[in-house]
Amino acid sequence: MNKAVTFSIEIFPPRDAAGWNQFDQTLTRLKKLQPRFCSVTYGAGGSARRGSDIALAHVQRQTSLTPAAHLTCVALSRNETLDIARHWWAEGIRHIVALRGDMAEAGTPFHPHPAGYKYAAELVAALRDLADFEISVGCYPEIHPESHDRLADLFNLKQKLNAGAIRAISQFFFEPEVFLRFRDAAAAIGIHHPLVPGILPILDFNKAAGFARRCGASIPKWLIDRFDGLENESDARGQVAASLAVSMCERLIAEGVQNFHFYTLNRPTLTLAICHALGIQPALERAA
Questions:
Q1: How far is CA 52 from the centre of its chain?
Q2: What is the pLDDT of residue 105?
Q3: Could you tell me which CATH number the domain at 6-287 has?
Q4: Measured between alpha carbons, how far apart are the two ends of the chain, in Å?
Q5: Does the keyword Membrane apply (predicted)?
Q6: What Å distances lie between residue 83 and 33, 52, 86, 169, 234, CA to CA?
Q7: Are the beta carbons of 104 and 44 closer than 8 angstroms?
Q8: Which of 117, 149, 158, 228 would be 73's cystine partner, CB 3.0–4.6 Å?
Q9: What angle do CA 178, 166, 64 make, to 5 degrees?
Q10: Which residues are catalytic?
């Protein structure tokens, strides 16, 4: 396996004591693989803002991982948004994943705060002026659900990158060709920044399908068939999920992809298995 292959992870703020235990297990098990950074989600409409702040501080102070803070345009004025960014900078957090974000009520069209940022590109430009943050943005291999068409979606991505972001992390997808076609289309309009595929290990197929419907990711019939009948077979389901993710990543690596972003859902086992299968192993094992 190409030693240049690297990865990052995404986690979400815990809500209770059991969640904190799982959160710590996720960090402990995955930090051995030295991910490039660990992004902490923000919650629709900023609904997990306080929890996100606590989780970020925990990653920053209690682990060797590099935290990346999610920040959205939802429900805050420009001054309030920048105050959050200033606070993170003072805490030593240097990486922000800048997103437009979604409203707290599922399915509600985005409405900017009257005094807030309307688009992620505006947020990126403001953060770039504020401090020397490393800024990532999101992208949609199958088009954002609210975009008019592929070209409009790509030009929006180009605006975010030109505003000062250094990479775009993709929404998850289930077939490598989806990402490769997107990458080709992006290159055709002059996007040459790193596009990092987002990988969602399928812990629960029905839950993953629900996520997909909300973000516009297509679910191929062959994938439905692979998980059919495994509802009560957790071990077999995990083996199928890992095998499919490894196969997809290997195809992407063969096409020149070197960086991946894993949506862990605070469940590290599948991500750990996938990384090992791809040759991403703990530093001590590599040294041996």
A1: 15
A2: 66
A3: 3.20.20.220
A4: 16
A5: no
A6: 33, 15, 5, 25, 44
A7: yes
A8: 117
A9: 100
A10: 10
